[in-house]
Fold this protein.
Amino acid sequence: MQNLRIERANSEVEKAISNILRNKVNDPRLNEFITVTYANLSSDFRHCKIGISIYTGDKNIVMKQLRKSEGFIKRELIKEVKLPYTPEIVFILDEGASHSDKINAILSTLNIPEADEGDNEEDF
């Protein structure tokens, strides 16, 4: 039961943080293409890790500005999501999407011949 409660809260926090970053933070350095990839609340709801994927711009500058905006983001989060406590927020750079893009770019450059219609896996 507790796990389901945390999962629902994680989902709500993820949506709320996305909305706050998209619509309420007026810092031009945060107008880069930013995606919230996950929210991970601790079991006592006092700490929250927020995964951030940054597609354009200087990642170090964006992360620094996110950390400076934590107070504002926390205040807005509590307005949008009912939680037992105001969690301490930690933003974590999620490099997964950029790694995936690099792999896809490499795969698209490979010259892999198409399989013949006569080939099938049953021959193996």
DSSP finds four helices and three strands in the chain. The chain has one domain: 2-105. The mean pLDDT is 84.
